[in-house]
Structures are given as structure tokens and as C-alpha cells.
Amino acid sequence: MNPLFKSKFYPIPFGFGNDAFRADSLLGVKGLMRAWRAGKVALSNAPGAGVADDKVVYAFVPEIIKYYLDEDPIIPNVPTYRC
Asked: Which pLDDT score is estimated for 74?
């Protein structure tokens, strides 16, 4: 038996990505997303929370600030290129 699955806490090793959401996967906690949507559990990192940390978003931060806050950014953005 894999020692990773002996405890009640099942960390997802780096690089597994969405494998935890497959029906036949042994990673993750079964029914966690359903329980989260029903308000039965809290997650420290809610789904989608990492999107703002993605480097692809950096170029759009000034526009996001302007759109949601209707303000200009206080700190100028670093030179970022859109590919």
C-alpha cells in the first residue's frame, strides 16, 4: 500500500493537476466539492483562487483594477508582454 494514503489527510503531490477530480482517482476527498457548494465545509484555497496568481494574468492587472474598482492602479505594472 502506498504510504501516502495511510493517513486521513491526502496531500496531492505536485504535478497531479485535475487527477483528483476523476471518478476513478484515489487522490482528494470524495464529495468535497459537493460539500463545499452546500456550505458544509470551508476550504482554505477555494477553487479558482489561484487564477490571480497565474503569470498570464499579470498583463491584465491594471485593467482588472480599473474595471472592478473604477480606480487607476496605485503602483505601476511591471513591463509585461502579451503573447
From this structure: 95
DSSP 1-42: --GGGSSS-----TT-GGGGGSTT--SS-TTHHHHHHTTSS-
- The pTM of this model reads 0.43
Alpha-carbon distance of 45 to 25, in angstroms, equals: 21
Task: Quote the CA–CA distance of 58 and 53 in Å, as a whole number.
Answer: 8
Q: Which residues contact 71 (CB under 8 A, 6 or more apart)?
A: 65
Contact 41, 33 (CB under 8 A): no
Q: pLDDT below 50 — which residues of the chain?
A: 1, 4-5, 7, 14
Cell of 45: 484555497
